[in-house]
Design brief:
heterotrimer; A mainly alpha; B mainly alpha; C mainly alpha; A: mainly alpha; Cytochrome C Oxidase, Chain A; three-stranded antiparallel sheet; two-stranded antiparallel ribbon; C: Four Helix Bundle (Hemerythrin (Met), subunit A)
Chain lengths: 668, 120, 275
């Protein structure tokens, strides 16, 4: 066993003498702090924090966009916003919240938690992980750069994207949206997809291959299981939208006819390809939150999770069936009776594993010693609100009823219950729950609970009335409405609720910032947790574990707390075995992931405006952007080539018996 | 080139699959030849379609199990790949059925068909 | 660099929880993802073949099935050479690996050259462009995306080939970079100008005219080829060895995958049209 541990993770190449590094373009960065340290980091915890920081920034931006939308709708015949600005706002609100807030927040937790929960020192491919992060940043820039043209007229992007987050053809054709903003949207989503696929491949390998000894698949924490299922959904769903986006890009730039009716194309194909991706995407957003909740509920009920295998199986089933329900977004397009019936049935079927999970969570609570700390409050809110969203979802699965609800505010109410009441509540619970682990400080209970109640009440005031607005016929994406439609009160309540929700979110994050500086210092294990991340110091050291743990039970850390002697002995052996093999091997930082991402930025930014001349100082330099796009591509390829030559590198850490960590490089 | 490796420790290596790979490649080429000939033979259409699909599937399996080593690797690799393959195949099948249904026929194509019928 | 290379087990990696090497797992997961990618693309093509609009191109009048069958054969042979490259490196034979990698790239270029010829022929002789019919749109996008995959494969193989010359000790990055450049130029010229030109010659064009027409790229290609031969003669200990078998095998997986996608495209896009 000790042998296997010593060879675990990065120590495989430990015997190779580390050669003098002369075969390189730049010296490998070694700074652990400061700007260089963050830009070149391969540490999964730092990458997770960067994901989290960017995601929270965009979460607040998306929230601000939502508040502007609600302000426009607060009274009938309002002219607070231009209609075009309104289109840009709802497009970017959806795109931002899905791709730039919830997905990267989940990615942040994948990065922070997966290696800790599987007992590894880092992810399987640390430099690839850094690449995913910076590629994601490139996508975020491409999507949002259009806003600049509202402030700097010289940047002629035609505003932010305004085609809706789903970009239905033929709205995306040059005839209807000639602006560059749509091209940037296409490339932005494509790049974000690339980032997600690369990151997911990394997580799949990490979860399957980097498990600590004794950690069988059926002992994996549920969060890690859900991360695995989500990663599979990402790698299998994103290619569909990648193709759809390529086709739109070709239609716009090279005159193909994929979605041009006059040339024999069918716009409906876009909807199919989009939802082949889009529906699994819904589960990509909600499965990780189901994982957080499955970690939080047992901890605060002081009981193991009820029905672990069934929860895992249901998660896998949701993921699988999720690929067979996409056309329920398109019932009103006239699919034919057979297809409509089949997709309606599959949609009803997917409610079953979801319901099974909810019963299991309730089973976990049942008979437990429930401690209503803030993460638990959000988790309980999740169960209730997510159920409400689920119920209206089942209403949609009945195709005839859906025909009445399609494109109305009822749908808005439904998916906000699922995505705020579900995903966001769980994410807020998770941030609160793991904050002490990664920042070493507690968030005050009172302010946390206050923010919970503000968010809970604000959220329900905003979205509950939308059910009625929708059934009264208010269409989605409507810029303004007449006062005689009977929608005035509902919209007023919803907008006031939105302000309250905004206040709650503001309180939540303000308290986090305060806690970061002034919060009570948390110990290693403030909640009496069950999983491996609570066994190590807060914040975790760069090598995570002094000794790779051996996992003896599903609630591994609870087991260890009750078998301290056995574990202490085991740990000492592991540390000794690893030290005799040269110490803890850590991967080196690298410049190439961020340089490759930079090349991608140059390439895609210029590809998006391919047919426009390049102007500088009022002079046309190139007739098209092709030379610049090729330059970006060359930077990307060169960076990848140097990356492959540089090798993973690495250095060793040695832990003295008093816990002091020393670093060694080169021959040992 | 098929001669044992020049390094001194060649004896420890697993046996070379050189001749085996050549045989597989020959089989694959022959199947491709048969496929091309098949489409020109005056036999029932359903038979040709079935034969073409089967032969392609056989080629596919030969490549993934022998050239891509699935046969000698852990079965999990096979499962992993087939998850993607089955979902992709299922999605294709469903899309073809949806677009093949009468409800999905574009008006231009439908008009073309009636025009042909009228001429006939 | 690794003296105990002989003990490497290429089918079991003791450092991972499943025994499957990390890189192999990554590539198989990626190929699963790529199945969906090509699944969506082939679906697009076939969906638009179900109910062709009036005035659509007629595939059987456009295709040149002899050439495509030959291309298919070429791609299958490149797969064979790729499998042999992996076989060679697993036995620690770096020189044979290099030969096989170059062979794979050469056959890849033959295939790509065939595609370049096919595309030019369709556009200029058969008058089917990317934009003048839906068949053109879907056909060129599908086979073009596949061709891009092959081209990326050739580039990756080229990087791998050049990497086998990385010296065990000391520098030489610039030389290595020049070597990669030579690979790119040689194979680029081969598939963009030389192979399509040779196919034209087979179909009756004049060879001397071909030389005159593309004198500059051919000159560049010859310079690249000479550089390739000169740099390929480098002696001295290299870092690359049996321990890198997994890297070659990973690229091999990608290459074979591109081959099986072509097997499907050949049947679904070409052969079925002839019924």
């Amino acid at each position: 066993m000790a042998e296997a541990i010593a060879k675990h993770a990065y120590t495989g190449g430990a015997h190779a003498p580390v050669k003098k590094a002369t075969f390189e373009l730049f010296a490998r960065p070694t700074a652990k702090t400061g700007l260089v340290g963050w830009l070149t980091t391969v540490d999964h915890k730092k990458i997770g924090m960067l994901y989290g920081g960017f995601a929270i920034f965009f979460f607040l931006v998306g929230g601000l966009e939502a508040l502007l939308i609600r302000t426009q709708l607060i009274v009938p015949n309002n002219h607070f916003l231009e209609a075009q600005t309104y289109n840009e706002l709802f497009t970017m609100h959806g795109t931002t919240m899905i791709f730039l807030a919830v997905m990267p927040l989940n990615a942040a937790f994948f990065n922070l938690l997966i290696p800790l929960q599987v007992g590894a020192r880092d992810v399987a491919f640390p430099r690839l992980n850094s690449f995913s992060l910076w590629v994601w940043v490139v996508g975020a820039i491409l999507l949002n750069v259009g806003w600049l043209s509202h402030f700097v007229p010289a940047w002629k992007f035609g505003g932010a994207p305004s085609v809706g987050w789903f970009g239905y053809a033929p709205l995306t054709s040059k005839a209807f949206t000639p602006q560059l903003s749509t091209d940037l949207w296409v490339f932005g989503l494509q790049v974000l997809g690339l980032s997600s696929i690369v990151a997911s491949l990394n997580f799949i390998v990490t979860i399957i291959n980097m498990r600590a000894p004794g950690l069988t698949m059926m002992r994996l924490p549920v969060f890690t299981w859900m991360a695995l299922v989500t990663s599979f959904l990402l790698i299998l769903a994103l290619p569909a939208i990648a193709i759809a986006l390529v086709e739109v890009m070709f239609d716009r730039n090279f005159g193909t006819n994929f979605f041009e009716v006059s040339g024999g194309g069918q716009p409906i194909l876009w909807q199919h390809l989009f939802w082949v991706f889009g529906h699994p995407e819904v589960y990509i957003l909600i499965l990780p939150p189901m994982g957080y909740v499955s970690e939080i509920l047992p901890t605060f009920s002081r009981k193991p999770l009820f029905g672990y295998p069934i929860i895992v199986f249901s998660g896998v089933a949701i993921g699988f069936i999720g690929f067979g329900v996409w056309s329920h977004h398109m019932f009103t397009t006239g699919l034919g009776n057979v297809a409509t019936a089949a997709f309606a049935l599959a949609t009803m079927a997917i409610a079953v594993p979801t319901g099974v999970k909810i019963f299991n969570w309730i089973g976990t609570l049942w008979g437990g010693q429930i401690m209503t700390r803030v993460p638990m409050m959000f988790a309980l809110g999740f169960i209730w609100m997510f159920m409400l969203g689920g119920f209206s979802g089942i209403m949609h699965s009945a195709a005839p009823a859906d025909a009445q609800q399609q494109d109305s505010y009822f749908v808005i109410a439904h998916f906000h219950y699922v995505l705020i009441g579900g995903a966001t509540f769980a994410l807020l619970a998770a941030i609160h729950y793991w904050f002490p682990k990664f920042f070493g400080r507690m968030v005050p209970e009172f302010w946390g609970k206050l923010s919970f109640w503000l968010i809970f009440i604000g959220f329900n005031c905003t979205f509950f009335p939308m059910h009625f607005l929708g059934l009264n016929g208010m269409p989605r994406r409507t810029w303004t409405y007449d006062s005689n439609m009977g929608w005035n009160e509902g919209n007023l309540v919803a907008s006031c609720g939105a302000y309250l929700l905004g206040l709650g979110i503001f309180t939540y994050f303000a308290v986090l910032i305060w806690s970061f500086f002034k919060g009570k210092v948390a110990g290693n294990d403030p909640w009496d947790g069950r999983t491996m991340e609570w066994s190590i110091p807060s914040p975790p050291p760069e090598h995570n574990f002094a000794a790779i743990p051996t996992v003896h039970a599903r609630d591994a850390w609870w087991y260890e707390k009750h078998h301290q002697e056995e574990i202490a002995q085991e740990r000492a052996e592991h540390i000794q075995a690893e030290e005799s093999h040269g110490g803890i091997h850590m991967p080196d930082q690298s410049w190439y992931p961020i340089i490759a991402a930079f090349g991608l930025l140059i390439g895609t930014y210029n590809m998006a405006q391919l047919h426009h001349p390049v102007e500088m100082f009022n002079k046309v330099i190139f007739a098209t952007h092709l030379p610049l796009a090729i330059t970006g591509l060359c930077i990307l390829v060169t960076a990848c080539y140097l990356w492959s030559l540089e090798g993973p590198g690495g250095y060793h850490l040695h832990i003295a018996p008093d816990g002091k960590v020393t670093e060694s490089r080169g021959d040992h | 080139m098929s001669a044992p490796a020049t390094t001194a420790d060649a004896g420890h290596h697993e046996p070379s699959k050189f001749h085996f790979y050549i045989q597989i490649a020959m089989i694959l080429s022959v199947i491709t030849g048969v496929e091309v000939v098949l489409v020109y033979l005056p036999i029932a259409k359903w038979f040709v379609v079935t034969a073409l699909c089967t032969l392609s599937a056989v080629k596919f399996m030969f490549v993934i199990f022998f050239f891509m080593h699935l046969r000698w690797d852990k079965v999990f690799c096979t499962i992993l790949f087939f998850i993607g393959l089955v979902l992709a195949g299922g999605t294709m099948w469903a899309l073809l059925h949806i677009f093949g249904a009468d409800a999905s026929k574009p008006l231009s194509a439908a008009m073309l068909e009636t025009a042909h019928l009228a001429i006939a | 660099m690794n003296s105990h290379a002989a003990t490497i087990d290429h089918h079991h990696d003791a450092t991972t929880a499943t025994g499957i090497p990390n890189k192999k797992l990554l590539w198989w997961a990626f190929l699963a993802s790529d199945c969906m990618f090509f699944g969506a693309l082939i679906s697009t093509h076939l969906v638009y073949r179900l109910n062709p609009p009036p005035g659509n191109a007629v595939p059987t009048q456009i295709f040149n099935i002899e050439l495509t069958s030959f291309s298919t054969f070429i791609l299958l042979m490149s797969s064979l050479l790729m499998a042999l490259a992996v076989n060679a490196i697993q036995r620690g034979n770096v020189r044979s690996t290099r030969t096989m990698l170059l062979g794979t790239m050469f056959f890849g270029c033959l295939f790509l050259g065939g595609q370049v010829f096919e595309f030019t022929h369709f556009v200029y002789v058969k008058k089917m462009t990317l934009s003048n019919s839906i068949f053109g749109s879907t056909f060129f996008t599908l086979t073009g995306t596949h061709g891009t995959h092959v081209a990326i494969g050739v580039l990756l193989l080229g990087m791998m080939y050049v990497r086998t010359f990385k010296p065990a000790q000391g520098g030489g990055l610039l030389l290595n970079f020049v070597h990669l450049l030579a690979v790119c130029v040689t194979f680029g010229v081969a598939f963009i100008w030389f192979v399509p030109g040779m196919i034209e010659v087979v179909y009756g064009a004049s060879f001397s005219e071909l030389l005159r027409e593309h004198a500059i790229p051919f000159a560049a290609g010859i310079v690249g080829l000479i550089a390739l031969i000169a740099l390929g003669r480098t002696r001295g200990a290299v870092e690359f060895g049996e321990k890198n078998a997994i890297d070659v095998e990973a690229i091999g997986l990608y290459w074979h995958f591109v081959d099986i996608v072509w097997i499907i495209i050949f049947t679904a896009v070409y052969l079925l049209e002839y019924l």
